[in-house]
Specification:
5-stranded parallel β-sheet
């Protein structure tokens, strides 16, 4: 539960979150049929949940070069990532499937089941082939999945669509 996660925050530590100015409100219908209001903010906030320092650095370089306006935050395990997602309310979550603590598919499934995350954009990155991802199929349904071998080619295109000023969050 979220209460348990907030209690874990005392163990993991907390980080101050700066409030960004709201530019536009966008309304979205959640899977349950309820309307979720997602404020657009500038800069857009992205949370990368990835345990590999190599891939963290690749995504950071990509953001610095192609998306300098993005406010990027990084968590290196599933538990910290889950806590940061609740604290930061990122516009986009980039999540590795294989994570320590809580695996990425479970993390995405848990977040997507909460009303406050219905309008967030999820991008899953993985080194697993399609057959190895099969056990996670339900949790990853409707989520963009990028194989790590194609990360630098596919992530910029996906982020361009997701972070475009006209894109709805």
């Amino acid at each position: 539960s979220w209460l348990q996660l907030n209690q874990l925050e005392n163990i993991v530590g907390s980080s101050a979150v700066a409030t960004k100015s709201v530019l536009v409100d966008a309304a979205h219908e959640a899977p349950s049929g309820e309307i979720v209001i997602r404020p657009k903010r500038f800069p857009p906030r992205v949370l990368l949940i990835e345990d590999s320092a190599h891939f963290q650095k690749l995504v950071q370089l990509l953001m610095d070069n192609d998306f300098p306006q993005v406010d990027l935050h990084v968590a290196d395990d599933g538990v910290v990532g889950l806590l940061m997602a609740g604290r930061l309310d990122p516009d986009v979550l980039i999540v590795d499937v294989l994570l320590p603590g809580i695996d990425g598919a479970t993390l995405v499934d848990r977040l997507r089941s909460q009303p406050q995350f219905h309008s967030n954009q999820f991008i899953v990155i993985t080194s697993l082939d399609e057959e190895s991802r099969a056990p996670h199929e339900r949790a990853l349904a409707g989520v963009s999945v990028i194989h790590k071998a194609r990360l630098m080619r596919e992530l910029p295109m996906l982020l361009n669509r997701t972070l475009a000023p006209s894109a709805a969050f």
